[in-house]
Amino acid sequence: MKQEQAARPAARSTKQGLRLVEPYIWMAPSIVLMCVMIILPIITVFRLSVSEISRAGRVKGFNGLDNYKEILTSATFRTTLWNTIVWTIVVVGFSTLIGFVLAMVLNQKFRGRKLVRALVIFPWATSLIIQAVVWKYIISADYGSLNVILTKLGLLDHFINWTATPAAFFAWECWVGIFVTVPFVTFCVLSGLQSVDTTFYEAADVDGAGFWTKLFQVTLPLLKSSLTVSTVLNIIYVFNSFPIIWTISKGDPADKTHTLVTYLYKLSFTSGRSGQAAAVSVIGFIILSICAGIYMVLSLRGEEENG
């Protein structure tokens, strides 16, 4: 009997120990996968960014900050960094604005609403490469359907080169980015709108609130979390977007329409400058980390205020 009584506390302590260890056992595969697929590549890129690499891809050794110095003193990189900032702000800003308006419209009851929702999501569901190829064909100066349609309508008497300058080229790429990003924002906001209790609007109507009052005093505050999530994810997606720029222009003419992602791709796989490409990748990683940090600070501050 005494042995059985002594064994019970030992069994209980063993079970408690297993309960403490069990969550980590279940998490172990995910942690290993994250280390192999995320952390290890990040460490590798940081190492390559401070290494001298031959055109054949052979790592010759440590070269300090030479890759960063070469990149930061390059006029092409400065243009690329500015393009990336403009690209991200314009695409995220306009897609958020247009997507919010579309979500407000699609939240209303009207005939054919399901069909319209299906049509709105189509650009987002289609491959970005396909979208870029289609728009490249549309704006072509020689055989583009935009010139053909406008000429047949009598709005033009001759074909126009819609991408005559780097700025015009880049503007069209921004438009394609907005076009394919709007559906994502629309449905993020629409999901938030459908979760809003209608009693808030009924109370606002009783108080005599108009459309703009309800928009700024009811809708926007209640959609803050949905807009924050969609904006942060949008910034990450757009910042890292590769297919649109590369398919339409490949950074041309004269490397004037690059973003950081296409520029580092060209450095690594076209120019054979893998060290500089790794440095550009690290710079982009730092920029996104700062954005993520700002998001975390704002989120925690919002939770403290709500709490």
Would you write up a description of this structure?
The protein has helices at 2-49, 66-72, 75-106, 113-125, 128-138, 145-152, 166-194, 198-206, 211-222, 224-239, 243-248, 260-269, 274-306; strands spanning 51-53, 59-62. Helices cover 76% and strands 2% of the residues. A hairpin with a 5-residue loop joins β1 (51-53) and β2 (59-62). With 307 residues, it is mostly helical. It has a two-stranded antiparallel ribbon with strand order 1-2. α3 packs parallel to α7 and α7 packs antiparallel against α10 (224-239).
List the helices and strands and how they pair.
Blueprint: H1 2-49, E1 51-53, E2 59-62, H2 66-72, H3 75-106, H4 113-125, H5 128-138, H6 145-152, H7 166-194, H8 198-206, H9 211-222, H10 224-239, H11 243-248, H12 260-269, H13 274-306
Antiparallel strand pairs: 1-2
Relative helix content: over 70%
Number of strands: 2
Radius of gyration: 26 Å
Task: Please give the oligomerization state of what you see.
Answer: single chain
Q: Which runs of at least 5 residues are low in confidence (pLDDT < 50)?
A: none
What's the rounded overall pLDDT mean? 84
Largest sheet: 2 strands, antiparallel
Q: Structural class per helix/strand content?
A: mainly alpha
Strand order of the largest sheet: 1-2
Molecular shape: flat
Number of helices: 13
